[in-house]
Amino acid sequence: xxxxxxxxxxxxxxxxxxxxxxxxxxxxxxxxxxxxxxxxxxxxxxxxxxxxxxxxxxxxxxxxxxxxxxxxxxxxxxxxxxxxxxxxxxxxxxxxxxxxxxxxxxxxxxxxxxxxxxxxxxxxxxxxxxxxxxxxxxxxxxxxxxxxxxxxxxxxxxxxxxxxxxxxxxxxxxxxxxxxxxxxxxxxxxxxxxxxxxxxxxxxxxxxxxxxxxxxxxxxxxxxxxxxxxxxxxxxxxxxxxxxxxxxxxxxxxxxxxxxxxxxxxxxxxxxxxxxxxxxxxxxxxxxxxxxxxxxxxxxxxxxxxxxxxxxxxxxxxxxxxxxxxxxxxxxxxxxxxxxxxxx
Length: 344
Fold this sequence. Notes:
single chain; globular; Rossmann fold; alpha/beta; 14 strands; six-stranded parallel beta sheet; Dihydrodipicolinate Reductase, domain 2
């Protein structure tokens, strides 16, 4: 007997990706239900070779559903996730609504899989921010070997991180440039076509943005609270795939060669690091891929025990949909949940 899985926000970029990944990875689901707002009711979405008709979230009964993959935004999650969890359905939430709740595990399976055991307090598990997820997949194996003291990270984040509206804005502005039409900025604070914007999410009192704060707080919650983290998050004119330049300072020596070998063996990591033209991975190449790619591994001579690395990943997959499905697989493989229909 397989599981019954609901995908909430099934018509969005991440929701559609969740449906694709559930099918690709052969998740043991006997039934998959696509949910969204009432205005999307009846819309058709693909699940493998089949087509699902979207049902309305606000009239759906979760009492016989085992897992809900939530990708409908923070406000909807705050309202619905506790209600769904109270019906005995485990919510894996892609928004930031519960990431910093001490009773909600924040999980990247390659980083802190054991923390998932505490999901039962609220029946909610949080997916981290997309930029944090890929960074920690690369940092965890290095931290286990030499203990990271400080992280300085600059991100180069694609417009898909801002949803379909972000992708549409980049497309429309790029076209407008070539035909000399007026360029309108609606989703982003400035023109994104052929430009970079050092501003993601709202500004905090200390001058950082909330996106940057998330990377700090989530690293401390998932990896090690003693690590010092400073981040600069930048939106770039790329459709899919986030890149990060990461400067690491360790408590003890770790050579670039040893780091390269550690990362080659680490789960979820793929090292492409040739010191030649094109011997590295860019966002274009990582789109549609599950791995977190690491390139440009080199020692930093400006600090004791320093390394620099370049990390790239598909933000819609490892940064969101794939990580959520991996958490669901973790629940199943650890025997933490059983299908309700089997119990009935």
